[in-house]
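I am hoping you can look over what I have pasted underneath with an eye to the fold:
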Amino acid sequence: MTKKYYELTPDERLASLHLDQRATTLWHDNQSETNAQLIENYVSDMRIPIGILKDIVVDDKHYAVPMATEEPSVIAAANHGAKLLNNLGGLHVKSPRQTAMIGQLLFYQTADDAIAQFVSANQQAFFECAKHAKPSIYRRNGGLLSVNARRVSPTQVSVDFLIDTKDAMGANIVNTILEAERAVFSSFEANFLGAILSNYATEQVVTVSAEVTVQQIGGQHIAEKIVALNDFAKHDIYRATTENKGIFNGISAVALATGNDWRAVEAAGHAYASRTGCYQALTTWHIVDNLLLGEISMPITVGTVGGTITALPQAKQALEVMAIQTANQLRGIMLAVGLAQNLAALKAIVDGGIQRGHMRMQYRALALQVGATVEELPNLVFKLSQEQQVDARVAQELLTEMRK
């Protein structure tokens, strides 16, 4: 009997792609028995470099932070921004007293308040159902916190379940409870549309703030331009999109290194940036006396236990490097990295241009692209830095000349 595609081994799937022997060997050599169990139709791993933000001070504690990224200048910028912000005591985190995820039971074609009345009358049933569905989270002092009906449109209602998932990312916990809770709404089955968590975790909004002296940032003129550039991103969606992308250069690199869902983190951040109806920068910078003050706020769902975090050895090692104990600690560190990343980017743009520093990092990638060996790399990078204009053709010509 012919196997279905998902039933094939990784090497059998590779064979079905009809690659040449060199390519097949490369894919095979990057396989992992562990990762083969995580996704369907697995064939190989894609390796992403992990670098270290050497020192960032968050709530008076020094952290070395692993960051996974392929973009050359990200980690250098994070280190530069952190160094600036560490000078006056580092970054400070304000977290909610209790964090929670939101799960939704969605109902449609309903125009009256019957569902809201039902929710109000059946609170005890919801809590009993949740405890029975996921007893393990209750053993960790988590679980269902509240249930409320929220009208979304004249014919749509979301029943929102607030669930404390403790130090887990929590998607599976929330969805398991929601599926169980659906049975409680059996009388509304004809109106039921779906059960799913929301990645817009508004009960997990974290704020990180820091300050740097005007002198350390390059003087009053540079500080004022940083504030003006950040303000531009409060009014222009084109600038705001790029500014927030730079912030997520840092946040997402930490999320990826620690096995967290960077896509969920970014989705929540972008939604929060639009909460006023106008998409804006997530950070705010302003000057008070002789200080440049920065702040970032956004909902952020991460975990330190369970799921892929437990399954991926590198994720566990990254958390060990930071000596992370709780998800709240990780939230604060990730946003601290995002704020440091933002400061470095804004300073680079207003003080000489982003491309100057960015290209120094890009030269190494370009040298590798044209075939330079590790031994040839330093010399070729130096030669590229002396050129007025640089592209792959120039790099290839310089490498050819070096080899004569």
Observations:
- Residues 50-96+206-352 form a domain with the 3-hydroxy-3-methylglutaryl-coenzyme A Reductase; Chain A, domain 2 fold (CATH 3.90.770.10).
